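ok so heres the complex, two chains, lmk if somethin looks off
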Amino acid sequence: MSSAKQGGPVRPATPVWRPLGSEEIQLTGGIWQRKQRLNTEVILGHCESWMERIGWTGNFDRAAAGTIGTGQLSTGQLSTGQLSTAQPGTGHAGIEFVDSEVYKLLEAMAWDLGREHSAALEDRYHALAARVAAAQEQDGYLHTSFGRPGQPPRYSNLEHGHELYCFGHLIQAAVARLRTGHDDLLPQVARRLADHVYDEFGPDGRVAVCGHPEIEMALVELSRATGEPRYTELARLFVERRGTGTLGPHPFGQQYFQDDMPVRAATILRGHAVRALYLACGALDVATETGDRELAQAVRRQWAATVARRMYITGGVGSHHQDEAFGDDFELPADRAYAETCAGIASVMLSWRLLLETGDDTYADLIERTLLNNVLASPSADGRAFYYANTLHQRTPGTAEGTATADSHQTAPAAAPARAADGVVARDGGAGGGVANHRALTGIRAPWFDVSCCPTNVARTLASVGLYFATASDDGIQLHQYGDYRVSTTLVAGPVTLQVSSGYPADGTIRVTVVEAPSRTPLRLRLRVPGWASGACEASEPPAARTERSLEFRRIFHAGDEVRVAFPVRARATYPDTRIDAVRGTFAVERGPLVLALESPDLPPRWAVDELTADPDSIATDESGAVIDVYRGGAAPDDWPYRARPDGPATERARTRLIPYYEWSNRGPATMRTWLPLAARPAPAEGPAA
Amino acid sequence: MSSAKQGGPVRPATPVWRPLGSEEIQLTGGIWQRKQRLNTEVILGHCESWMERIGWTGNFDRAAAGTIGTGQLSTGQLSTGQLSTAQPGTGHAGIEFVDSEVYKLLEAMAWDLGREHSAALEDRYHALAARVAAAQEQDGYLHTSFGRPGQPPRYSNLEHGHELYCFGHLIQAAVARLRTGHDDLLPQVARRLADHVYDEFGPDGRVAVCGHPEIEMALVELSRATGEPRYTELARLFVERRGTGTLGPHPFGQQYFQDDMPVRAATILRGHAVRALYLACGALDVATETGDRELAQAVRRQWAATVARRMYITGGVGSHHQDEAFGDDFELPADRAYAETCAGIASVMLSWRLLLETGDDTYADLIERTLLNNVLASPSADGRAFYYANTLHQRTPGTAEGTATADSHQTAPAAAPARAADGVVARDGGAGGGVANHRALTGIRAPWFDVSCCPTNVARTLASVGLYFATASDDGIQLHQYGDYRVSTTLVAGPVTLQVSSGYPADGTIRVTVVEAPSRTPLRLRLRVPGWASGACEASEPPAARTERSLEFRRIFHAGDEVRVAFPVRARATYPDTRIDAVRGTFAVERGPLVLALESPDLPPRWAVDELTADPDSIATDESGAVIDVYRGGAAPDDWPYRARPDGPATERARTRLIPYYEWSNRGPATMRTWLPLAARPAPAEGPAA
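and the predicted structre for the whole thing:
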């Protein structure tokens, strides 16, 4: 099957391991299948409905009809506040890069259709793609915010206009369509668009880049999917131009859009986190396709330093609300973690590329950590609301009284789910923090945002998430992620089908059942050993090879053969590096790959998450989380919070439950913390070791 | 002299203590006189020169000439980025509230002239005031950004337009002129303007408030200075309307501009810190003049809760960069402290009002703490650069390679001081944090900002700072702040002149020498005992009354009599409340009223502030700071910063100096921290007390 062989979201020319296509790997149960079904059944429609109602999809119709730029919006125009640039009377709804949300939804639909056919979804997909295509101009340009009468000229605001960024998302949507076996309308639109961009920005075009990286990886992927080398050539130019000062000044500094230094000169990711990570993905794609080892090495080095010094325990990245940016080394405040959902997704995209390029299991660890503990925290259990920022510490319960940006009655679709927060909100759910009864929305998920990149990014990620679980090689299969899924592909020696079953992540036992395998050639079956299980996993048979981070079985397998591996998923304490000031004197509790959280509904009445300490020696594993002893009392009076002596020890004890972090805030507004202050007598300085 | 009796920046109708006027109290030496001289000799001219060069002062000329709103700027137009709303072709330089910077400079000049006459400064003052006055319209309205052809209509954007905010600053400048004995041009302008505002927004006008509180306290003060009660009546309306939803939605939530609930219903300050504090000042002024005890009590309660839970040890307030706002209770990250200079100044303004209203010495403590450790940290030692945000922890040295917002060559005045950072920068000096060699300006002071409220606010504060040092009562003098100054006023029994001398804050001995005193009536001389000196101060004679927070001497004094009080200013460790997550497991070092800081230039070569711990038992007092043992070593490898065991103890020791926090960053780009991690073996949980 040609479609199956085209691979998943990334397909390097010469990977260590070959990514599987959507017909080669299917989730069959467990948490990920449940989330993927939620995506198919709820999230896709939720995004589609919102964008229809508030006019973002209609922008394409108005562009095709020639009324955008001059017409009046009849419905759904955003009340914008300062986070949005929509202008009354322009006929354009939303900020200037809302096209990209429609493209990410198309990408999500394409992956979903590749995974499981649905005539109804297929119809919706084609209808949406046709509306996009109709807005494409004669020369291939396609953007609803620029270039028409009454709009700013094309490419007149590369710093903030997001034109190439939107193009990149359209191209990625087209690549998803190609990779799932269909070279139809959207891939045609994407080629014409990419050709236009090549003419405008290629070797004979203007020397410029977009303020928001994204098109780089999209172009390389389009090259991979179509065989057209010019797109990679263009991506290379964009990567090489970055950091050479082609962009004008940015209020947050040039590192905000990574124009502060050439990509290959940087030693760490910095600036706006999503921008930095999308750029790193593009740079690595360019390096891979052009054999640019120096550039690949630069990306690996940057990512290693970033992981070591600028990543939250959840895999979230980006410490700053103000500029949605990486902080300094070890600047990782739990209570002001931005840890944007899109940055987590971008991080998975980068780690996946690095895993394919290097075969290093630590990248699969990062994917697992980030998917489970950052990305999965975004959608609510019902799939109708999302976190944009994923804090690790919520001090005051979120309120659902109103919204921060817009009058909810003005903008909420009538058909939207009944939810108190049915309004468009500022991107981090209201940044003010603040007292319990203010009107800004904090601490709870919102159905939509004025900058609503996260819901559609979640959608495309969930639609394709199974494709990150395993890869193929000439003679074997590598299992990178665990859960319930079926792999069915063809190796050199013939077809292989495996069924992976487990109760993971709650249970650590992984069963791999062979359904079909070459009868006369040994099959290599390689399982990643998660970092936390290193040296502590058990197998049902002796592996042929064993490293700290992998188990490899290699023999003739017969149908019905089963290999079992058990990872210890008991709850454990994890301590932060002493250089992370924000969480000094605390510990987190992890259980297998899950970061756990203490949420207020689990506390005794009248206990507050911000007044307690906890004892790591009291941790016991619970069905899906843990239980732990917590203490309170001993705090000093409420006058001046800086005193001549440390506060006294706690006086009351209780035993409480910890839940998986990603499940938090699904039981109503709550407070929460992941880092628990150590229950210890205030330690007088004992002096260091001699 | 009538002018002397008009008092300082605040003059309530019925204060517990009477504020002194600029002719009644004069700094005569020490740090505050040095800073005040720096203000007179450098800062005033620095602000004046910058605003002239970049067209902010010229806005008034263009408004008077009728060319604003349509004309082209010939010079100095800001390169604005997203923080500024200046539009090419509008003839208006800078964002919409730059008028207020000219007014704050005028206020600073007025206080400075009241303090010490200077013909040259008087000329500059009159010239500037005349240019402002020329822009006033027939009906009293005066704003260079609104209402003329080509500009938005008057009062068309109360949420963000800052019209009444600017008026408030003009009125405060006029009040400074009145209080220093001159009822000339600016007071006339202010009366006409206030009358206009009364007509527009008074009992028969529109029911609305400004998005940025400020005019409330200005109007009450104008009532106090002119005797016109309508201005207080108007201020009362503005205070009562706040929190009733007259403002449209704000992206950061309604608490951003305190429109989330009525002033008297709030229990703590929240939202944008400067807005919250200016509003609290205005509310208290209204309460004081109208005898509204409930409102006064509400402000006192809010401030007490804010001080207990939302104030940095430096007195700085505002934890959030994004919205320049208060955080949640105990959300006080040292490394992301915004602690805006203007918020510190506003805090001093509020504490001063509360001190006059209540006589409670803790407010004088707050004034001292905030002036010395937050406000004074803003201006550089040479007075030519300023911090907007005052972080308590600098992780990477600031760089002076360029600026964040604007091309420095385009906007820097040719005559500006030779400083690498000669450019207009984002208000917090570049929010990106980030790597050492990026182009954004972080960690060092900047000569000017696109929103440049802080330099002029520092100027007006330094020009009038002596007026906060002492007050009079019928039969005595209260000394609230210490340093070197002379008080000369008239009590019921006759004239009194005192000379206060000390090496404070480095030295804790205060000498009060009587120069003149009533010969037959006892003089009451009351000295505040700072909180840190409570129970530990010594006096040269037995006080007539003594409380934990005050010493009161009362006898017939003769010329030449001296009273000496000694406060223990030795360096000491201070521990944070356990609820402040961001600084758990650390301590600060204070010396007298000074917060000390560890700055990289004082460390041994190759030691970094972010790798060390310190031992509070090793603190020794130094001439103006302290010395302390610090340790390093023992950190884990640079891979994944969350581990199964706490990092090991330190292995190397050094002795290092701590300097007053306000002096930091005057020896070139540096790293710094105020909260020092406790040098202790990682403590296994010992369990709480039974």
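quick notes: Chain A touches chain B through 121 residues (CB under 8 Å). thats all i got rn
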